[in-house]
C-alpha cells in the first residue's frame, strides 16, 4: 500500500480534489508586500511572454482579484437564501448514482497516480503534453480540450471525469480562468524550452502549478472566522503552487536537461557564470552550488508565504495542506544533502521523514487553531 493518508476535500463531493501523501516513490496583506519581494533582488523584469507589457505578477494578480470577487458574490447569493444547488448548471448530472460513480472514478485515478497532490482534471491536462501520446499533441488538440472545459463549466460534461468537475464547479465559486491558464501553460510548454528571466519562469509556474492553488481554495473554503482578506489567502495558495513547481524544477534539472529543457532563469545562470553547456555536462561545481543556494532560498520564500495562508483555510483542509507543504519542502533539504547534485541524483524524502511530517503538521495546525 503506497498511501497512508488519503484526504478528500469535501465529504460528498468526494473528489475533484484529493491530496495523497506518503507514496513509495517520492524520491490582510495585499500584493506587493509578498510575492514581489520574493523576486526582488533576483529579477523582476517586465519581459512578458504573453505579448503584454504587464509583468507576470500583475497578470496573475488580476486572476486572484477575479476569484476573490466570485467568493464575495457567492456570499451575497447565500445571504439572499438562494439555493445554489437548485440553480446548478449541472443539469446533465442530476442522477446521484451516476454522479457518485463519476466521483469514484476520479478517486481511482488519484489512487493510481497521485504522489503528493492531485486534481484529476489537471492530471489529464498534463498527460496531453507529458503522457504517452505527447509527441502527437497539437495546439489544435489543446483548443479542443479548452472547448471541453468551457462545456463542462456550462453544465455539458463530455465524460464521467468531466461530470464530477462540472458538478463541483456548479457548487463552489470556482472561476474558469485558472483552468484556461493551465491549458495555456501546456501551450507554452509545447513551444518553449528556455526561460530568459525569473519573471518568465514565474509565469510558467503560475500556469502549471499556481493555478492548482487557485482552483483548490474555493472548494476547500476559507475559515468563517478568518480575518485575512480573500486575496491574501489566494495569494498564499498561489505561492504554494509556485513553491512546489520551483522545487520540482530544481529536483529535475538533470532529467529535464536530458530532454533538452532548462527551466532555469537564463539571466541568473549567466550572472552565476554558468552556461547551458555546464548544465548539459552536469558537473557540480562551486558556481553551480552557489547558483542552487539562491534558487533554493527563493523556493523556500514561496513556501513561507504559502504557510501563512494555511491557518486561514477551513479546519479540515489545514492539516493535509500543511503536511503536503512540509513534505514537498523537504525535497529542497534533500537536494542540499545531495551536495546540489540534481543532475544524476534524484532528491527524495524517505518514508520515515514523510511519516514524521504528518504528526508534525497535525500538531502545528492544532497550535494555530487554538
Ligand atoms: C496554502 C493555501 C492557502 C492553500 C493551499 C492551496 C493548494 C492546495 C495548493 C497546491 C498547489 C499544488 C499542489 C500545485 C501542484 C504542484 C506540483 C509540482 C505538483 C506535483 O505533484 P506530483 O506529481 O504528485 O509530484 P511529483 O512530481 O513529486 O511526483
Automatic annotation (TrEMBL):
EC number from the UniProt entry: 2.5.1.32
Catalytic activity: 2 (2E,6E,10E)-geranylgeranyl diphosphate = 15-cis-phytoene + 2 diphosphate
PROSITE patterns (alphabetical): SQUALEN_PHYTOEN_SYN_1, SQUALEN_PHYTOEN_SYN_2
Source organism, top-level taxon: Eukaryota
Cellular component per GO, a single term: plastid
Gene Ontology MF annotations: 15-cis-phytoene synthase activity; geranylgeranyl diphosphate synthase activity; squalene synthase [NAD(P)H] activity
Entry-linked InterPro entries: Isoprenoid_synthase_dom_sf (IPR008949), Squ/phyt_synthse (IPR002060), Squalene/phytoene_synthase_CS (IPR019845), Trans_IPPS_bact-type (IPR044843), Trans_IPPS_HH (IPR033904)
Residue ranges crossing the lipid bilayer per the database entry: 201-223
Keywords: Carotenoid biosynthesis, Isoprene biosynthesis, Membrane, Transferase, Transmembrane, Transmembrane helix
Name the record gives this protein: 15-cis-phytoene synthase
UniProt source species: Aquilegia coerulea (Rocky mountain columbine)
